[in-house]
Design brief:
Chain lengths: ~325, ~325
């Protein structure tokens, strides 16, 4: 299709937000010559066919990988081992198998042992997403200016790593390499702990007796609504992340709890100086994220603000002039 | 200026994000005939004059309130009592004094005792804001479709409450009334606890030895960046909020800690069912907030996504066709 095609046949196993975004982006960029997609549920497969984002939709994982030179597992991390076992004997010699999992240590452990010799496993994690799930949620620009982290083992074929790097760059991503162990620590703090905290606080708000759910929704612009976006993320995906990255998450949770205890004590004691110091230094982090282009500089994430009302509201008290 | 002016002379004490937004909105809507602004720092007063958002800028709080029929304290909640003492003997009989504080019980306690008889104190809290501060950060649309909560005492003049209600409606806000005590609980969970948690986690990330600050910034799109926005809020304002609403915040923190302990235990034990249940029910809250128009339905808060790259990235591996 395009002179820049890096792979001949891309097999995507799973067509949720990430899988369907890869399909759209790979086609838009001519990164591959053809795309075959499969998904566990018949409804998802049907929807992918309707959306027309793949050249072929097949029923089984084994059928999907036949003749593919790049296979990407786009399933929850807890399902990767099982999928690897299913496709193992159908993989083409010299093909590259990759994934998109948010945890790398556990996925490598589960997948690597299943794959035959002569197949290159290059684990990957595109750090991108939205709170929406499923094939309709994907879009071709999802990975632009986001980071994709590769965690190949030391003995992985350098050519395979280079080809996958080129593929992700063509989809707009910046590519970084690190060890799986370090990845799981970094994402533990930048992604897994924030999700756990957001899920917790949204649950806490929903269980209060003193404050009704409708009050929580109504006054959520005070800050709470910022947490609800990531607490709306896919529950299966996130269950698997916490089960698979237990050690790093518990480590980060321990640190968080210590810091929260310090601030709690400051509030209890009326220690304004400690609060002020803490609240001042966190501003710099926000500034840094905006400066490197990882978030919008617009206030409020750039949320739209409706216009002022043109009509005088009903029930308006009498104007000053007649007072 | 306009037939719908509800007040003759509005005095704003403080011209940060909220004060300067009120000035802009009140003028845009013709809600008052003239606006006088003061601020503690000479730099802020000069900037307000340069911006041209007030009819008059004066040096002292006492001078600002002379002849005003609406006075709004737009200062951190810890400063309200002191300001009330300064303006007390200069307030016009029959005038309305209000505020914009995020805590109501403590402000009422600090302010009410300072005010003379014949002046109506109607505490208010517009639940709106951004992570930016100062007179340049304000904009006229800030309050549109947001809630403004009034917490007048039972014996407050109903006419005064009605006029202030009309003022906020004209600025685009929905107006709700509740007791100060209930307000402080509701905002404890929808605003104060989320801010405390966000300040904590951003601080935790910044202190880690295993993960560098540049890694935290780089991979913040995994969820962390959502927390950094509210952790960039004004440190003095938030120090005062936690000192003033100590009891409700500690109560909400206790609930949050219990819920976090439950999820931590589930992770430690590998209890995927508990995690899945919790992560599933929080989705409904997000849906509710979007449905009532308190957040954008667009994925990722509507953050912009750049286009796919048109140029082939550098260091691209050789294309498939020549492989």
């Amino acid at each position: 299709m395009s002179a820049q095609a890096i792979f001949n046949r891309l097999a995507l196993i799973g067509a949720g937000l990430i899988g369907s975004s890869i399909a759209r982006a790979a086609r838009a960029q001519g990164a591959v010559r053809s795309i075959v997609v499969t998904a566990r549920s018949a409804a998802t497969r049907r929807r992918v066919a309707e959306l027309g984002i793949a050249d072929q939709v097949v029923e089984t994982n084994a059928a999907a990988v036949e003749g593919a030179d790049l296979v990407i597992l786009c399933v929850p991390v807890g399902a990767c081992g099982e999928v690897a076992a299913e496709i193992s004997s159908h993989l083409a010699p010299g093909s590259i198998v990759s994934d998109v999992g948010s945890v790398k240590g556990a996925v490598i452990r589960d997948v690597l042992s299943q794959l035959p010799a002569g197949v290159h496993f290059v684990p990957a994690h595109p750090v991108a997403g939205t709170e929406h799930s499923g094939p309709d949620a994907g879009f071709a620009e999802l990975f632009v200016n986001r980071w994709c982290i590769l965690t190949p083992a030391a003995d992985t074929d350098p050519g395979a790593v280079e080809r996958l790097t080129g593929f992700w760059r063509l989809l707009g991503a910046n590519v970084e390499r690190m060890s799986a162990e370090h990845h799981d620590l970094v994402l533990g703090i930048t992604s897994h702990l924030p999700h756990l905290i957001a899920y917790t606080i949204v649950g806490t708000a929903d269980e209060l007796k003193q404050v009704t759910r409708s009050e929580v929704l109504q006054f959520s612009a005070g800050g709470f609504r910022d947490f609800t976006r990531i607490a709306a993320s896919d529950p299966i995906m996130w269950r698997d992340v916490f089960l698979a990255n237990k050690d790093a998450v518990l480590e980060m949770l321990g640190r968080f709890n210590e810091d929260l205890a310090t601030l709690t004590r400051a509030i209890r004691r009326g220690d304004g100086e400690t609060l002020f110091q803490q609240f001042s230094r966190t501003r710099a982090i926000r500034r840094g994220i905006v400066e490197i282009g990882q978030d919008s500089p617009a206030p409020d994430f750039g949320r739209p603000h409706p216009e002022l009302p043109h009509e005088v509201p009903q029930e308006l008290p009498r104007p000053y002039s007649s007072a």
